[in-house]
Amino acid sequence: MIKKQSVPAATPVNGIIPVDITSAQFKADPFPFYAQLRAEAPVFPIMLPSKQRAWLVTRYDDVVNVLKDERFAKNRRNVMSAEQLKKIPWMPPMFKPLERNMLDLDSPDHTRLRALVHKAFTPRLVEQMREQIQQLTNELLDAVEAKGQMDLLADFALVLPLTMIARILGIPAEDNTKFHRWSNAIVSIKTSGDSLRLIPTIMQFMSYARRKIKERRIHPKDDLITALVQAKDGSDTLSEDEIVAMIFLLLIAGHETTVNLIASGTLALLQYPEQLAKLQNEPELIKPAIEELLRFVCPVETATERYAREDITIVGTTIPRGEMVLAAIGSANRDASYFDNPDQLDIARKNNRHLAFGLSSHYCLGAPLARLEGQIAMSALIQRFPALRLNIEPKEIRWHGSFILRGLEALPVAF
């Protein structure tokens, strides 16, 4: 049993040496480490690059409980002691509005924001994108077909969801490059030092978002920024800071997850050629295939941070009040208690209760869009290019170091 406050976060626990879960090396294959934790230390303390201790929860049942249990708060300022609050890494005051995003709030604030945003981000809006997604997919594949090769991430997996979320928000196509640059920089943040270096980038983003909000108040359009500006629940509306935070959240969550699904999912199919051939021969399997790839490659490796409202004991380990908890979705999705042969890719898997989009009140609002984009993109890709193959040696594959997400830096392929 791990006693609370008795284990320095960087020392071995039960003989297991902690790792940097944000490193590119770990992202390449985190699953053996998670398997060891599930078996030997299912609630495990780690030290993040920010020098903050966090607790990894790794078994499926426990991950589900963390995602559903109201004792785990999203807003750390609601649960931390005065001493713990002093240790929070300094944040430039101009970043404060970004904390008003749904991922970092609890009820009633979260409930209010989600209700307002849901009125704008409806299934009808997503379904209206189907034809545009298919058309853009075809255009992107047309553009590379004659070359016989591409970086699947830069030329396809990135461009498709980034372009679509920009269109949904109402961002002009010529600004897509800026959007990607901002997003890539933001998801690379690991320490307060990184945050300081990114002050100019985030200020550029916030200034841009405020200009767009002002434009839509004066000249409404048929886009999501206008819908956010106009969203009402009775007399309740979103403040400008809340709209900026929502655009910020949608910019990152609205495309980074799908980029990783398409690129890492394609790599998984190339690594399991019998599954790739099965999907090419049975294209009707694309829906369960996408669900299996979500489970298998885990584009979002851990759920976003939660904080213990009180001392909470899980499997004999006490997590002290105010400390960070990371529900390891990538581990839960490989738990043999819920998945037969969990380390095997099976595109026809039945009863696939993966947790790739989270659970409960913080379930991913953009899940329908990510699924639709993944289904259209990967179906078109493997049918258009039946001889699709890696264009580098497997040892040359590089993963992106990141906190929450899991994705490739590049994926050169030939066809």
TrEMBL record:
The source's domain of life comes to Bacteria
**Tell me, what is one Gene Ontology molecular-function annotation carried by this entry?**
iron ion binding
The record's listing under InterPro entries reads: Cyt_P450, Cyt_P450_B, Cyt_P450_sf
The record's annotation in CDD domains points to: CYP107-like (cd11029)
Kindly state which keywords UniProt assigns to this record, in alphabetical order.
Answer: Heme, Iron, Metal-binding, Monooxygenase, Oxidoreductase
Q: Which family does it belong to?
A: Belongs to the cytochrome P450 family.
Q: Which PANTHER family does the entry mention?
A: CYTOCHROME P450 YJIB-RELATED, P450, PUTATIVE (EUROFUNG)-RELATED
Q: What is the protein name stated in its UniProt record?
A: Polyketide biosynthesis cytochrome P450 PksS
What is the protein's species of origin? Answer: Dictyobacter alpinus
